[in-house]
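Exercise: predict the fold of this chain.
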Amino acid sequence: MVFRKPPDGGWGWVIVVVSFFTQFLCYGSPLAVGVLYLEWLDAFGEGKGKTAWVGSLANGIGLLASPVCSICVSSFGARPVAIFSGFMVAGGLMMSSFAPNIYFLYVSYGIVVGLGCGLLYTATVTITCQYFDKRRGLALGLISTGSSVGLFIYAALQRELIELYGLDGCLLIVGALSLNILACGSLMRPLESPNSPRPEKMCVDKVPDQYFVYHEKEKTIEENISILEKGYIDEKCVNNVPDCKQDIILNKNVLSSINVNEKDTYKKKVVEQTNFCKQFAKRKWQLYLTYWKETMVLFKNKVFSALFVAILLFDIGGFPPSLLMEDVARSANISEDDYFMPLISIIGIMTTVGKLILGILADFKWVNTLYLYVTTLLMTGVALFAIPFAKSYLTLAMLSGILGFLTGNWSIFPYVTTKTVGIEKLTHAYGILMFFAGLGNSLGPPIVGWFYDWTQEYNTAFYFSGLCVLLGGFLLLLAALPCWNACTNQSSKLPPNTYSYKVASNT
């Protein structure tokens, strides 16, 4: 598929709007799953670590399947994938309302909803990057705020729906709202070059003759008999050689009656069909090898290699607060009467602000987006270390706001990835990075929950989380320094469309 130059506007702004609402509708409930988490703890009576798997799967499984999601978007386009995924998200939420136990939720809410969200996220990011170049940071920041606004609204909405209709009714209503994703997906028009020829539908009449083994005139009775006799003789020759010779003599007259030209034509077409199958299999194998070769080229870039470690550690440590902060407050014996606003809602609204501000900063030429991203990682690690010292609603609310703002670095992560590997390799590279992000999302909350089940307090868990995020930030910083950055030292050897990060002073 040939794409024209990104218009940086026009229909691109429609893409931004529908992508915003797509992420709002699909990620609202999974990100605000902390409200449902408390209800599931009371309903099923399972441990915190076991119950946390539901929310971690919903937010992690889609990212784990990012390579598959990327292949789906590349193969079918953003519009069909978005429409299909809308059905998945809505269906998974509605199925979860009938969950008899926690294991059913692992599948309905964790896998089905999570996979649908992953497909929608890849579709919205990919098509937005195709429509924007100079304003890509702003566009990505705007669409990524959809999930944050969804977190802010759905945290309060789900709590209100639970009080009015119960947990089951809440999930049914939220699932029905998710059907609006279908309307958003239908507006994701692909950005194709107007000069590129439209693919012709493959008609039966236009298929080359060599692809049809039996596309010839009907065989004569003698020829059909001879083919069957030949197969019978070949089989018999394996078992009994004397009988084989006798059968060959008896059928000699029958075989001689076959038209030589017809026989040769049949053999030729069988050989051509066999060669076609071999070429098809060889071509698929070559695509598979090319995929892995391109993957190895990506990992030779030290910035990219450090990026995947940083995103893994960041999600292990940075994601649990959005899922468990409400339970942290309850464990600290903070009364709900002291609540001005749910802590999850504070995280959501501040994440929206963070995504917008960081996305705008990424568009300034004097800002090194890699160093900006590293700064957010280091500050997140410090904030996580401070959570065990928060003993009141006010301090937890302040830390929730800081963590929410810093989590807004998701808006510049696609920007950093694009500048690292180029727009042509964005889908491939982003799928790999999102796989590790999903692994971190899936492991983070259960690990924190297990720490609580083991120690009966969250202090050790958040010390571990902060250490993971700080380690990832320092590794990425080392990879970006001039003395360690292979991209800077060997910029002339890099493949086309690969961005080399330089020190902020040189940018």
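Check your answer against the key: Residues 197 and 219 are 41 Å apart (CA to CA).
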